[in-house]
Structures are given as C-alpha cells and as structure tokens.
Amino acid sequence: MVKARLFFVVSGEHRTLPHAEIRAILQSRKIRFKQTASSAKMLRVTADSSALDAISERSVMFEQCGLEITATNGGIKRLLSVLSRMNLSDHFTNKRSFAVRSLRVGGAFRYLNRATLERRIGAVLKQKSHGVKVDLDRPDLTFLCIVYSRGLLLGEITHSRMPGLIASRRPRKRPVFHPSTMQPKLARCIVNLARPTERGILLDPFCGVGGILLEAVAIHCRAVGADADTRMLRGARTNLAHYEAEPFGLINADATRLPIRGVESIVTDPPYGREASTHGRGLHALIREFLPSAHDILSREGHLCICCPSSLRIMSIAKRAGFKLVESHLVYVHRSLTRRILVLRKR
User: Fold this and answer.
1) Cα distance between residue 115 and residue 125, in whole Å
2) Which of 95, 129, 160 corresponds to the end of one domain?
3) Residues 330, 339 contacting (CB under 8 angstroms)
4) DSSP assignment of 185-222, as one string?
C-alpha cells in the first residue's frame, strides 16, 4: 500500500482519549501506521489513505482530517517559499473552487493574524490552481493551515465530522432514561478503544438501558447486551427499537456467569454511584467476580474496555484474573467521581 502523510484535528475536551481512539480504530481495521507527531488538538501519522475513511466512519472525537501537503518549522514566509516550489496540480484536479481555513493550536505564533495568513496562502495557491476559483462559502476543496508550537502545517481536508452526529441519542432524548447512563460521545469512544471488528462479537455485560449498545450498533458491530435486571433489558430493547438499532442479542444473565464464549470485544461501565444498583454486592466484590468470567469468554486476541471509579484498585484485580494493561485514561465527571477507563488484554 502507498503510504501518505495524514493529519487529524481532534476535539480538545480530553488530553489523551481522542488520540487513543484514532490509534485504536486504525488497529481494529488492521491499518499499519506510524505516528509522526501529536499535540493537544492534532495527530499526524504516516499510513494508507484508507485510514481517513476508517476514522470518519467510526470516530466521534475527530473534527477534521486529511492529506498533509507540507509542514515547516518556520513562520509564514518559510511556508510560502516551500509552497511556491511545489507541484499541487493533483489537489486541484476536477475542482471548480477552493478556500483556505486556519486553526491555531494552543496559542502558538500569536503574532500571526489568521485572516492575513489565509489570504497570503490563498494567493499562492491561486497561482498554482490553473483557473480554479476562490469560494469562501461552498468550496469544492478546502485547505487547512494549522498553526502549532513547532510551526505551520498545510493540508487538504478530506473529511469533517457531521455536526449533531450523536445529539439525538443523548440520555434525556431516549424513551427510557436512567441517570447513570454514559453520554454517547464517551460511550462511542470506549467502544472504539475495545478495537471491535464488524465480524466479531461485542458484549456489554452490564448493558443497562443500552447506551453503549446504541453506539456499537451505530458503527455496525455485532453487539450483544446482558443484564441481570429484566427492567433494564426492557429499557435497552425500547431504546434500541426507538433508534432502529438492531442488536445481535440481548441476554438476561449475571455478568459473572455469562452463557457466551468467543467474544472479541467487551465494553462496559459496571454499576456504581448513588443511582446504580449492584444487587447487594459491593463494587470491589462485583469486579473481582466479573473479571475472571470476562477472561474466560474473551477471545485470545480480544480486548476488554472497562470503566470504574479511579479510587478502585482495579489493576491488581485484573492482573490476578489474567489480564495485562494496554492503556489507561482518567475522565473527570464531577467533584466526587473521576472515571478510570482501562483497556485490557489477556496475558
């Protein structure tokens, strides 16, 4: 496969999750890549251009992505000098109009006025476009100049995340609401962190009213939900039907004794907090019983993504159950709760 230089502009609400989600999606699609640089809002990799389609189809933490044209360590004069010597005809093929946008990351190069930057880059590109017009409202082709700590990057935007992609699936908009349900953006992210493929089974063994299942089905996973509470399962079935999301199955079962094997991905947010029920078991005891069961049903190459309060010493339990750590992230929820998100694999 031909490797290309790619860039991803990501949302900035979390320091590590957006980058981790992109890497996990590429790994699940078996797309080989090499990370070349990263910053708070940007990730750069070398990979086949199919990586752009993979991320746009699954990620909710990317904002824009595309093909890197050039990057310089200097300011605008250096960038314009490099551009003036480049052959950019391939970018303008079959295009009738273009525009230049800019993004400043982390307050870098504050002396650069973004409007001036866009105008000067646009003037050079206009000379190389062979008659392609500038259209700032509805361009066929959009270039993005990213101003970051090390310099300037110019790329062609190929994909942008659709606004309001998951807004309709927010917990309060669903027919059945439960206060402990995870927000859909984070639910989609942890589904992706579990590296599911379209053919493998993805299981949420504490599925509740189906928030994680909704996001898994939305990216075409063969999603199975299980819960010991029949009321929760009825809520999950109602919510899934409302969004015309077809699960692979729903099971009324205890998460520590699941009648299923060969699961490729387990993604779950077990019950904890004031609004959640553990059916008489403390959270520590519940996790201690659940993780060996998860180890038994998970395929050899599978991943488990689990959320828990940061105060819970889950890694010692996970190691005793036969897991090794792939990655860990902390997510602040409110003053009394910070979530720890762990991605685990069998040792």
Assistant:
1) 15
2) 160
3) yes
4) HHHHHHHHHT---SSSEEEETT-TTSHHHHHHHHTT-E
Q: In this structure, are 216 and 320 located in the same domain?
A: yes
Mean pLDDT of the chain: 93
Q: Note the pLDDT tens digit of each residue in 92-102.
A: 999 999 999 99
CATH at residue 213 = 3.40.50.150
Question: How far apart are alpha carbons 333 and 315 in whole angstroms?
Answer: 21
Residues 92 and 143 in one domain: yes
What pLDDT, on the 0 to 100 scale, is given for residue 274?
Answer: 46
Mean pLDDT, to the nearest integer, of 104-119?
A: 84
On whether the pTM is more than 0.70, the answer is yes
Could you give the CA distance from residue 171 to residue 212 in angstroms, rounded to a whole number?
11
Amino acid at 307: C
**Residues 218 and 296 grouped into a single domain:** yes
Secondary structure (H, E, C), 142-195: EEEEEEECCEEEEEEEEEECCCCCCHHHCHHHCCCCCCCCCCHHHHHHHHHHCC
Q: For residues 261-266, give the mean pLDDT.
A: 96
| Bigger pLDDT: 336 vs 53 | 53
pLDDT tier, 272 (very low <50, low <70, confident <90, very high otherwise): confident
Domain final residue pick, 107, 131, 160:
160
pLDDT, mean of residues 10-14 = 90
- Residue type for 66, please? G
In the numeric block, which tokens belong to residue 5?
């230089």
CA distance 51 to 60: 15
Q: Which domain holds residue 271?
A: 168-346
Domain match, 241 and 268 both: yes
Query: Measured between alpha carbons, how far is 293 from 295 in angstroms, rounded to an integer?
Result: 5
Residue 8's alpha-carbon distances to 146, 282, 335, in angstroms, are: 11, 42, 32
